Each structure stands twice: as structure tokens, then as C-alpha cells.
Amino acid sequence: MPTQNTSTNDRIVLVFGATGQQGGAVATALREQGWAVRALVRNPDSERAKALAGKGIAVVQGDLSDRASMRNAMTGVYGVFSVQPSSGQGAAYNVTDADEIRYGKAIADIAVESGVQHLVYTSVNAAGAEKTGMGHFDSKAEIEAYVRDLDLVATIVRPAGFMELLMLPGMGLDMGVFTSFVRTEQRAQIIAVQDIGTIVAKIFASPDRFAGRTIEIAGDEITGAGLQDSLSRAAARPIAYHRFPDSLLEENPFLGRLAALFDDGRLAGNADLAALRAEFGKLTSFDDWLNGPGRPLLQAALNAGDAPIALR
Ligand SMILES: NC(=O)c1ccc[n+]([C@@H]2O[C@H](COP(=O)([O-])OP(=O)(O)OC[C@H]3O[C@@H](n4cnc5c(N)ncnc54)[C@H](OP(=O)(O)O)[C@@H]3O)[C@@H](O)[C@H]2O)c1
């Protein structure tokens, strides 16, 4: 039985993006805590949707561009987990920043209409009052502000970069190098996707404690030198860390802007890791992730041929 201060078994949480990373982690963690979970999916016949159903998650067909389907999915639900695809994911979803904003606002509007009692919206660590100049971060700041203006009990989490993102092909691991934004001695925060699930499930379990809060979340912090050590240990072979060369950052405005946001600290993150551990319990370190849930991704990256960089 769950130990939280809310009776969960008869309450439904509707999870968006449950066939994806964050929504999948949230849906799984909520199920494990005894919640009734409903997932809005585009294709209930997909393997990922079937896997959700296999975990006891009720799957309903819908689409973020179809408000009637979202209203239908939100009927009778207690809570909503809100996540949207973004332009930062490139060709994966082919959405614009305007699409992301429209989807995020629509979920919040329909949550109000439907009498939802607690909405958790997942944003990004770089979102804040000051614009970043990156469309898929500023979109999230706009959705955050919209949610805060509604008559809606809401908690906003702002995750750091996902550990999973570090394993995308094209970072060079298969060639014994790893290339990223962080400088050799600069600290940057990261989070395992499964920890987003753990944290969000705890937030739903204690609405009184978390209502109205905006929480930057991360599970660990690494430096470029630390990445080199951790990756070399986990791969059992030398991996040399390099920051993206300045010439590349100058040529590619998207990568250049991301690098600038690491340099000014916003994308490197400012989460209070000690406070997060006190509030949410043990969070996954990068070393534990590499030797645990991240092992298959690490193995695939070590074995991958070189491929273009895709960023989320
Ligand atoms: N990567 C990072 O380090 C990082 C850090 C902070 C924030 N973010 C943000 O996280 C968000 C993405 O989250 P994620 O990585 O968990 O997503 P993801 O794994 O890419 O999954 C996206 C989910 O959205 C669903 N979806 C896409 N279009 C849809 C539509 N039109 N209607 C209904 N569902 C739709 C997909 O369902 P299907 O199965 O139907 O495709 C899938 O379940 C982005 O906004 C990104 O900017 C990323």
C-alpha cells in the first residue's frame, strides 16, 4: 500500500507522453505507488502502448492537436502529468515552438474545465523569467506562466538534461571520445529519466506540500573531467572528453546558443541536490546509471557508427 497522505487507489492520473521518456517514467512510478493511471496515446496498437496496458495502465486514444480527445481522456481524472514534444527534438515529432505552447496551454485549459485537482507540468531547468533565446526553452517559460495564471493547483518541475541524452549517437563514444558542452572543470547537472518518475509520483502523493511550487530537479552533477572518468570506468576502456570545438559552436547557432547557456550556468543547472535528496530520497548518480538502467544505452553508443547529432 502507498504510504502517502492521499488515498490513491481510486484516483486517476492522466499521463501525457506515456510512450515516451518522461511520461513513461511517471506512468510507471505512479502505477507502482498504487495510482490508477490513464495514458493518452496516439496509437493504442503500438508496442509501447501495449506495454503500458500490460502494466495495468488504461490506454485511451488521443492527440495533442485534438481537444475533444483530450477532454474525453480527462473525464473523471484527479491529476494530470503534462509534457509536450518540442522543436528541440528535431525531426522526431516535427513540432514548432508554437505547437508546443498551444499543446501545453490546451492541457492546462482542459484541466481547469474538467475539475482536475492537481496538474504537474514538466518544463526545463533553463526556463525562467529571463528569455534564453532558444525557442524550445522559452516555450516552456510561456507555458509555465500560463499555468500559474489559471485557477489550477499545479506543480512545475524543471528537469536538468537527461542522462539518456548523453548516450545519443554522434557524441563519439564508439571512437573512444566523448564530446559535449560542459567545460573540463565546469559542473553541470543531469538527471536519470526514471528519477523524474519517482519525483513526480511523490509530488502527486503530497499535493498540499507541493502545490504552487516550481522545483528545479537533477540527480547528479558532473564536469567534463568527471564524464571522462565515469565513461572510461563504465566502458572499461579510455574515453577522452572534449568540449565541442569553438569553430563548430560559431558555425552552428543552435549548438552555439546551447553552449552559451551552459557557460552562463542556466543549462548547467542550479538545482539544490542536497535539498532534493532530503525531499525525494536517493536519486540516481551518473555512475549508478551507467552501471544500471543506462547500461544498454551505453553499450549501444559504444557500438554505434558515427551519426549526426540529434538534440532534444
Ligand atoms: N532531453 C532532455 O535532456 C530534456 C531536458 C528537459 C526537458 N526536455 C523536454 O522534454 C520534452 C520531451 O519529453 P520526453 O523526452 O519525455 O518525450 P519523448 O520521449 O520524445 O516522447 C514524446 C511523447 O509525446 C507523445 N506525442 C508526440 N506528439 C504527440 C501528439 N501530437 N499527441 C499526443 N502525444 C504526442 C509521443 O507519443 P507517440 O508514441 O505517439 O509518438 C511520446 O509519448 C520536450 O519538450 C523536451 O524539450 C528534455
Please describe what this structure looks like.
By secondary structure, the chain is of the alpha/beta class. It has a domain at 12-161 and 193-217: Rossmann fold, CATH 3.40.50.720. 41% of the residues lie in helices and 16% in strands. The radius of gyration is 19 Å and the shape is globular. It starts with 11 loop residues before the first strand and ends in a 9-residue tail after the last helix. 42% of the residues are buried. The model is unreliable at 1-7 (pLDDT under 50). Residues 17, 19-23, 41-43, 48, 63-65, 83-86, 88-89, 92-93, 124, 136, 159, 161-162, 165, 312 line the site of NADP nicotinamide-adenine-dinucleotide phosphate. NADP nicotinamide-adenine-dinucleotide phosphate binds next to helix 1 and strand 7.
Number of strands: 12
Characterize the largest beta sheet: strand count, sense, and whether it forms a barrel: 7 strands, parallel
Alpha carbon gap, first and last residue? 36 Å
Q: What integer value in Å does the Rg equal?
A: 19 Å
**Widest sheet: strand order?**
3-2-1-4-5-6-10
**Bound compounds, please?**
NADP nicotinamide-adenine-dinucleotide phosphate
| CATH topology-level fold name of the domain at 12-161 and 193-217 | Rossmann fold
